[in-house]
From TrEMBL:
<dbReference type="Pfam" id="PF07690">
    <property type="entry name" value="MFS_1"/>
</dbReference>
<feature type="transmembrane region" description="Helical">
    <location>
        <begin position="262"/>
        <end position="286"/>
    </location>
</feature>
<feature type="transmembrane region" description="Helical">
    <location>
        <begin position="134"/>
        <end position="156"/>
    </location>
</feature>
<keyword id="KW-1133">Transmembrane helix</keyword>
<feature type="transmembrane region" description="Helical">
    <location>
        <begin position="356"/>
        <end position="376"/>
    </location>
</feature>
<feature type="transmembrane region" description="Helical">
    <location>
        <begin position="194"/>
        <end position="217"/>
    </location>
</feature>
<feature type="transmembrane region" description="Helical">
    <location>
        <begin position="162"/>
        <end position="182"/>
    </location>
</feature>
<dbReference type="InterPro" id="IPR036259">
    <property type="entry name" value="MFS_trans_sf"/>
</dbReference>
<feature type="transmembrane region" description="Helical">
    <location>
        <begin position="332"/>
        <end position="350"/>
    </location>
</feature>
<keyword id="KW-0046">Antibiotic resistance</keyword>
<feature type="transmembrane region" description="Helical">
    <location>
        <begin position="101"/>
        <end position="122"/>
    </location>
</feature>
<keyword id="KW-0813">Transport</keyword>
<feature type="transmembrane region" description="Helical">
    <location>
        <begin position="77"/>
        <end position="95"/>
    </location>
</feature>
<feature type="region of interest" description="Disordered">
    <location>
        <begin position="457"/>
        <end position="501"/>
    </location>
</feature>
<feature type="compositionally biased region" description="Low complexity">
    <location>
        <begin position="460"/>
        <end position="488"/>
    </location>
</feature>
<keyword id="KW-0812">Transmembrane</keyword>
<dbReference type="InterPro" id="IPR020846">
    <property type="entry name" value="MFS_dom"/>
</dbReference>
Length: 501
């Protein structure tokens, strides 16, 4: 195996630097939110809205960066993405304020492009590494997510905003690594559909905005109804444009496949709570119980330890899922992931957030995250024809990002609706409603999982216009999702036991 950067271990080691940056960026901010909020005067609702903004950036950038990588080359787009993350990290650390946090977290959303772009380079430059190479990168991602939060939390124990510097040296190292990485396969060429990108971006922003601000505006107000109608019109127009486009941004026709639709619905429902609630989790853990009557009153370092424990349980869940699926079947694993997630939120609800039960519930949510991400990543790659694998995975990544963003928006709306006058502090009812809604949506995901059936790979109808080379160069992988879909070819199903139609 070659020792240089162009292939083999050298290539993998260089990629690992970029992946470590990705993990740290995904894991270091959440435990800092309560302390930074208190330091800068950002309330609980504002803290959740910052987390919501990051999730919205992930949702918008997921299809954009994947498509740009296909058009202009994975290495070039990776360098742009790492530069955006580096700039955002430095901006927040050097000038911490509400506005710079909002802008910096939006720029950091470009981290969503790291994994799919690296996967494209790895597959073309060192195909002999296969899933072994991907496993190494996933391991680096998992470790860095937990370690990043712990380091940032420890730094912020002395000064609230000191932890913001955690990502700066790592993003600089990742930029250096991106500059020396070789190019992957040649750019496929084609045209970037700016009209479709604009419609999708504006539609997603309008949708998340009405969910986040509907309570403050009044759900029956003209502002809420008008924004909701605008979101529906924009997204409907986006779908219509994509169907007619010679070079679509996202091949939405793949959603006609019933099994892929089931996988995406399940992904959306589980991401809604398991990922969408992470910002609210930090807020709850950091709330002083003597002042609010609930919460833990923990500092950033202790909150980071909880996040690390959740990541560890998620890693365990993803590790055991393939073996369990071989015994009980994919449909059962989908339902199990939803049930475990719902059980975690119901535990929080039933005990009103008492410390020990709350932590048990949070760990169950972490376990469910590993289960659902492992099984959905695999199935999204298997339920379509081989030449549409990465496109299918990209739609699944979009479902995850949307689920997380909309989940955070709904939680933000519930927070805004349950504040105690006159100080505006959140009441326990705000969290109780949030946990209950997340549990209900997780149960819907479990029900969707029971509708999954195995069968032959589905191919959507041929597009009306030629769309360029059919075989994709790499799967998409969103921020916060540690499990890739694997190679671009369709693998054998994760399991078939008990999944007959």
């Amino acid at each position: 195996m070659a020792a240089g950067i162009g292939s083999g271990r050298g290539l993998l080691a260089t990629m690992a630097v970029v992946v470590v940056c990705s993990g740290v960026v995904q894991g270091y901010l959440t435990p800092l939110l309560p302390g930074i909020g208190a330091h800068l005067g950002i309330g609980s609702v504002g803290q959740n809205n910052l987390y919501l903004l990051s999730q919205l950036a992930f949702a918008v950038l997921t299809p954009l960066l994947s498509r740009l990588g296909d058009l202009y080359g994975h290495r070039r787009v990776l360098r742009v993405s790492v530069s955006m993350v580096t700039g955002g990290s430095l901006l927040m650390a050097a000038w911490p304020a509400t506005a710079t946090l909002a802008l910096g977290m939006s720029l950091q959303g470009a981290v969503v492009g790291f994994f799919p772009l690296l996967a494209g380079i790895l597959r073309s430059r060192a195909p002999e590494l296969g899933r072994t190479g991907m496993s190494v990168l996933v391991g680096a991602l998992l470790v860095s997510i937990g370690a990043g939060g712990l380091v940032a939390g420890s730094l912020s124990e002395g000064h609230a905003v000191a932890g913001l510097w955690t990502a700066v040296p790592l993003s600089a190292a990742a930029l250096t690594a991106a500059l020396v990485l070789p190019e992957g396969s040649a750019a496929r060429g084609g045209h970037f559909h700016f009209g479709a990108a604009t419609l999708l971006t504006l539609g997603l922003v309008a949708l998340v905005l009405v969910l986040a601000q509907g309570s403050a505006w009044g759900w029956a107000s003209p502002a809420s109804w008008g924004t909701a109608a605008l979101a529906l019109v924009l997204l409907a127009a986006w779908v219509a444009v994509e169907h007619r486009a010679a070079h679509p941004l996202v091949k939405v026709r793949l959603l006609r496949g019933s099994r892929l639709a089931v996988v995406n619905v399940h992904t959306f429902c589980l991401a809604f709570g398991a990922i969408g609630f992470l910002g609210a989790n930090a807020v709850f853990l950091g709330t002083e119980p003597d002042e609010a009557g609930y919460g833990m009153g923990w500092g950033s370092r202790t909150i980071a330890l909880v996040s690390l424990a959740m990541v560890a349980l998620g890693c365990l869940g993803s590790t055991v899922t393939p073996r369990l699926a071989g015994r009980v079947g994919d449909r059962t694993m989908l339902a199990l992931g939803g049930a475990v997630c719902a059980a975690g939120f119901l535990t929080m609800t039933a005990t009103d957030g008492a410390p020990a039960p709350y932590l048990v519930g949070a760990l169950l949510v972490g376990l469910a995250t590993g289960i659902f991400e492992a099984v959905t990543r695999t199935l999204a790659a298997e339920v379509v024809a081989e030449d549409e694998t990465a496109l299918s995975v990209g739609l699944n990544e979009l479902a995850l990002s949307l689920g997380a963003a909309i989940g955070a928006a709904v939680i933000g709306a519930l927070f805004a609706a349950h504040r105690a006058a006159p100080d505006g502090r959140l009441t326990l009812a705000a969290f109780r409603w949030s946990w209950t809604v997340c549990a209900g949506v997780a149960l819907l995901g479990a029900a969707a999982g029971l509708a999954f059936r195995h069968g032959t790979a589905e191919r959507g109808p041929a597009p009306a216009h030629p769309t360029g080379p059919a075989h994709p160069t790499g799967p998409s992988h969103p921020a916060g999702s540690p499990h890739p879909a694997g190679p671009a070819r369709a693998e054998q199903p994760l399991a078939r036991n008990g999944d007959a139609a």
